[in-house]
Design goal:
- The chain is mainly α and about 280 residues long.
- The protein has one domain (about 1-280).
- Helices cover about 75% and strands about 0% of the residues.
- It is built from 9 helices and no strands.
- Helix 1 (about 1-10) runs antiparallel to helix 5 and helix 3 runs parallel beside helix 8 (about 240-260).
- The radius of gyration is 27 Å and the shape is rod-shaped.
- About 30% of the residues are buried.
Length: about 280
């Protein structure tokens, strides 16, 4: 029973979906992720700037009776409350996106370290571990491709055990240590493979986490209302328009950064796969 449990756990290490044409889609996915974040940011920019310009329009269109002191106080109090909530939400979104980005980066580093450790343990095992090292080299590249493929939320695929992974697990189970040091080393190999499987599965479970669209839409709506209220209390002049332009640009830039950090494997701020790919070059050397 224990043997079966270990085998099932290790199968998860190199599970992958459809690998065919991955290289062909990689650049397209990155461009698609960038365009999506940029489009939402541009929409935010035009809504916020449009809201401020609309506020200035209504200031000129409305009579002074509509902008009495008591009306101004009500508007300022209401937008002040909305502004406080929006600032808190925006800060939480940035902190959450940064935390998620750092967590996935740490998991990929852990996977890289586990792969190198696993190969070193197989090297210490001696000639009997040589074939396993070769199989490991064949099994890791599809895993790397799958990890970055999972970052594309428009293409989801369930886990599927590859032939390389199955062969790797079978070979580990077929090892026959003939001494206490080798038996201890085999136990360490199994432990390293289990740690690698856990890190891999942890990364997979977070691969499709994203910021809810309604949540983001409400935040953009709040920001538009706030800037529209700003426009109600100023007269139109170039300095005011430039100020609103810079403010809308800053707000849309923050939304862009949030969306990019929420896509750490496909966006402009994507985590590089080079460290993991370079670690493969040291295997079997």
């Amino acid at each position: 029973m224990e043997r079966h449990r270990i085998e099932e756990c290790h199968r998860d290490i190199f599970r992958t979906g459809d690998r065919g044409g991955f290289a062909e889609f990689r650049s397209g996915r990155r461009a698609g992720a960038l365009v999506s974040a940029l489009l939402i940011s541009l929409i935010t920019f035009f809504l916020v700037l449009g809201g401020s310009l609309l506020g200035m329009y209504f200031r000129n269109a409305l009579s002074d009776d509509h902008l009495r002191d008591d009306v101004r106080d009500v508007i300022r109090l209401s937008t002040g409350l909305i502004g406080t909530i929006a600032a808190l939400v925006l800060g939480l979104l940035i902190a959450s996106a940064k935390s998620s980005y750092d967590a996935r980066s740490t998991q990929i580093k852990q996977i890289t370290a586990n792969v190198i450790l696993l190969d070193r343990l197989l090297e210490q095992y001696g000639p009997d571990g040589h074939n396993l090292r070769i199989i490991l080299r064949n099994a890791v590249p599809p895993m790397v491709d799958r990890i970055w493929n999972e970052g594309d939320r428009t293409r989801t695929a369930p886990f599927a055990v590859t032939g390389e992974a199955q062969e790797f697990v079978n070979k580990i189970q077929e090892l026959e240590p003939n001494s206490d040091p080798k038996r201890a080393l085999q136990s360490r190999i199994l432990s390293a493979a289990t740690d690698l499987a856990q890190a891999r599965l942890s990364l997979f479970t977070q691969s499709h986490d994203s910021i809810p669209a309604p949540f983001l839409a409400v935040l953009i709506f709040w920001l538009t209302i706030i800037y529209a209220s700003f426009g109600l209390f100023v007269r139109t002049n170039p300095i005011v328009i430039v100020t609103f332009f810079v403010g809308a640009l800053s707000v849309s830039a923050s939304i862009f950064l949030i969306l990019e950090m929420d896509q750490p494997l496909t966006g402009l701020l994507r985590i590089s796969s080079e460290p993991l790919r370079q670690a493969l070059g040291s295997l079997g050397s």
